[in-house]
Automatic annotation (TrEMBL):
GO terms for molecular function: carbohydrate phosphatase activity; phosphoprotein phosphatase activity; starch binding. Keywords: Hydrolase, Protein phosphatase. This is Protein tyrosine phosphatase. One of its GO terms (biological process) is starch catabolic process. Signal peptide: none annotated. Residues 56-137 form the AMP-activated protein kinase glycogen-binding domain. Gene3D superfamilies: Immunoglobulins, Protein tyrosine phosphatase superfamily. SUPFAM superfamilies: E set domains. It holds the Pfam family AMPK1_CBM. The keyword Hydrolase applies. One of its GO terms (cellular component) is chloroplast. It comes from Carex littledalei.
Length: 176
């Protein structure tokens, strides 16, 4: 089904006034599927706050390995980006520009998936996995935008009527 489940859930959330979790639950009661709610939450926040970007640096300490990669972030779990080793500092690092939002990731060290205990960790997800995560706030975001983005990407996110109207206006501008 590809992206169709997420499109249906987003439509129910943005246009039909369902809470996001209610829309997902209703869809799942009709058909087994896997809508990516995090993508809908981030798209909602992007529409309402605009898209600003920030540069992040991820690091892995240690010279006792031959490759370090990262997976997750904005590329998904099926892709990997190699980190660069700095011999002088004994650190692997990756600089990457990301849009505002929360990103989960894991390191892949010599082919083995690992988390960095010195960086922020998620709670165990539905599969019991614990990942690293990073919150990105670009230069253009202010305190109100950060708070709005945090609310909209939370577990029980919902929209106010004013926010729904703003999303409808946005969609109508690009529908022509």
């Amino acid at each position: 089904m590809g992206r169709a489940p997420a499109v249906a859930v987003a439509y129910m959330f943005w246009i039909l006034n369902y809470r996001l979790n209610e829309a997902c639950h209703l869809l799942l009661s009709k058909r087994p599927c896997f809508p990516k709610l995090e993508a809908i939450k981030n798209a909602t926040a992007d529409i309402l706050t605009g898209i600003s970007k920030g540069t992040v640096t991820l690091t892995w300490q240690g010279s006792n390995c031959s490759t370090v990669e990262v997976s997750g972030l904005d590329i998904g779990w099926g892709q990997r980006i190699p980190l660069t080793y700095d011999k002088e500092k004994g650190v692997w690092s990756l600089k990457r520009e990301l849009a505002d939002g929360r990103y989960e990731y894991k390191y892949v060290v010599d082919g083995e998936w690992k988390r960095n205990e010195n960086e922020a960790l998620t709670s165990p997800n539905g599969d019991g996995h614990v990942n690293n995560y990073i919150e990105v706030y670009g230069k253009g975001s202010n305190k109100e935008e950060r708070e709005l983005r945090t609310r909209l990407t939370s577990e029980k996110c919902d929209l106010t009527e004013e926010e729904r109207l703003m999303i409808r206006d946005f969609l109508e501008q690009y529908g022509e």
